[in-house]
């Protein structure tokens, strides 16, 4: 369902992009703004900049509400496919840190 990325309404701003790391702020101005369907090609960490919830639409059609806490990061491995949607009545954002250079075995 999400092999081809789609354009969402959330605003992405890349702060750092080099051979090893990409750091992007994702900003959701209003409820319902979304990242668009995408599949993560790299391991990544998300650092929420707000207290609230994001709705995660999985490639199997599942919908999950994920609680976010300002400054509390979480890690995901490559291959995750989803659309991330703001479930908040206020502007919210998170910072996504992707590890472009994977660990060597």
Automatic annotation (TrEMBL):
<dbReference type="InterPro" id="IPR014710">
    <property type="entry name" value="RmlC-like_jellyroll"/>
</dbReference>
<protein>
    <submittedName>
        <fullName>Beta-alanine degradation protein BauB</fullName>
    </submittedName>
</protein>
<dbReference type="InterPro" id="IPR011051">
    <property type="entry name" value="RmlC_Cupin_sf"/>
</dbReference>
């Amino acid at each position: 369902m999400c092999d081809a990325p789609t354009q969402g309404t959330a605003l992405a701003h890349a702060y750092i992009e080099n051979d090893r790391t990409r750091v992007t702020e994702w900003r959701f101005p209003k409820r319902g703004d979304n990242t668009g369907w995408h599949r993560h090609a790299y391991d990544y960490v998300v650092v929420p900049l707000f207290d609230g919830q994001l709705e995660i639409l999985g490639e199997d059609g599942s919908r999950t509400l994920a609680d976010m806490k300002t400054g509390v990061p979480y890690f995901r491995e490559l291959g995750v496919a989803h659309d991330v949607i703001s479930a908040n009545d206020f502007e919210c954002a998170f910072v996504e840190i992707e590890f472009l250079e994977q660990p060597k075995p």
